[in-house]
């Protein structure tokens, strides 16, 4: 009697997306993602995602360049729980092993976020850990990573840097945190990077100019990969002379250092 053979495991692809999510303008997807990434994305039918709606929009853009292997309506898209978005999943607490069922049945899965590389400044690390635990191959694809693009263009220390996520929303708490990060940067030379939602850009820049020392260098990168992209890197003293920061519709990456 023949014993049924178990299908080989599928792979978990980390699929980057363009950085223009939520922006008023969008560049051609081919300008943001290489051919190999687009071709791989077009062939997947199983997805784990931060946001199903944005993933469908991404697949629509991919399909304009490469025919999808299945219509968008037939794609299997699973959203990560809301609490994972709010609290993150890099410290455990969420069991992503059940999400690997399709891969254990032999199907490739794509992990995708709203913008950029999944798991980097976005949820998804629990999915990657589960894949490793189950012996599923993890394949990162090439695409834009806003943090590294901003760091490279900042003129700050790219040999020693830290991403610190989001800063406090409360103005007083934010000022305290900024002074802490500035002190760390001055003592160690380590560049400190963080991100902010577009509608709080003005408040963030105002806090920076009030809290930081005149000689600290502040870099703000906004609209990366778009035709309107701007990277501004100056001392706080120079910023205070009237340099205009990012608008309220464009994602930005902030960085400070000596």
TrEMBL record:
CDD domains named in the record: RsmI_like
Database matches in SUPFAM superfamilies: Tetrapyrrole methylase
Pfam family, one: TP_methylase
Gene3D superfamilies assigned to the protein according to its UniProt record, in alphabetical order: Cobalt-precorrin-4 Transmethylase, Domain 1, Methyltransferase, Cobalt-precorrin-4 Transmethylase, Domain 2
Keyword Thylakoid among record annotations: no
Molecular function as annotated in GO: methyltransferase activity
Residue span, Tetrapyrrole methylase domain: 97-235
Biological process per Gene Ontology, one example term: rRNA processing
Keyword line: Cytoplasm, Methyltransferase, rRNA processing, S-adenosyl-L-methionine, Transferase
InterPro entries: 4pyrrol_Mease, 4pyrrol_Methylase_sf, 4pyrrole_Mease_sub1, 4pyrrole_Mease_sub2, rRNA_ssu_MeTfrase_I
The protein's name in its UniProt record: SAM-dependent methyltransferase
Source organism of the structure: Limnohabitans radicicola
């Amino acid at each position: 009697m023949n014993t049924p053979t178990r299908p080989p495991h599928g792979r978990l692809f980390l699929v980057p997306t363009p950085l223009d999510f939520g922006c008023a303008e969008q560049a051609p997807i081919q300008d943001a993602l290489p051919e190999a990434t687009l071709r791989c994305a077009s062939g997947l039918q199983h997805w784990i995602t931060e946001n199903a709606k944005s993933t469908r929009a991404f697949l629509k853009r991919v399909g304009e360049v490469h025919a999808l292997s299945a219509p968008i309506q037939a794609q299997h898209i699973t959203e990560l729980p809301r609490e994972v978005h709010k609290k993150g999943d890099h410290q455990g607490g969420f069991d992503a092993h059940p999400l690997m069922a399709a891969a254990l049945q032999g199907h490739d899965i794509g992990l995708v976020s709203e913008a950029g590389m999944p798991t980097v400044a976005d949820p998804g690390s629990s999915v990657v850990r589960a894949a490793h635990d189950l012996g599923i191959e993890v394949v990162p694809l090439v695409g834009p990573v806003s943090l590294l693009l901003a760091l490279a263009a900042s003129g700050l220390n790219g040999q020693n840097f830290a991403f610190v996520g989001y800063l406090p929303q409360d103005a007083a708490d934010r000022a305290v945190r900024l002074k802490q990060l500035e002190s760390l940067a001055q003592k160690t030379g380590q560049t400190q990077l963080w991100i902010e939602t577009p509608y709080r850009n003005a408040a963030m820049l105002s806090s920076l100019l009030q809290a930081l020392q005149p000689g600290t260098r502040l870099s703000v990168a906004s609209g990366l990969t778009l035709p309107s992209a701007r990277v501004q890197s100056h001392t706080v003293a120079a910023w205070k002379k009237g340099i205009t920061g990012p608008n309220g519709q464009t994602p930005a990456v902030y960085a400070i250092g000596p």
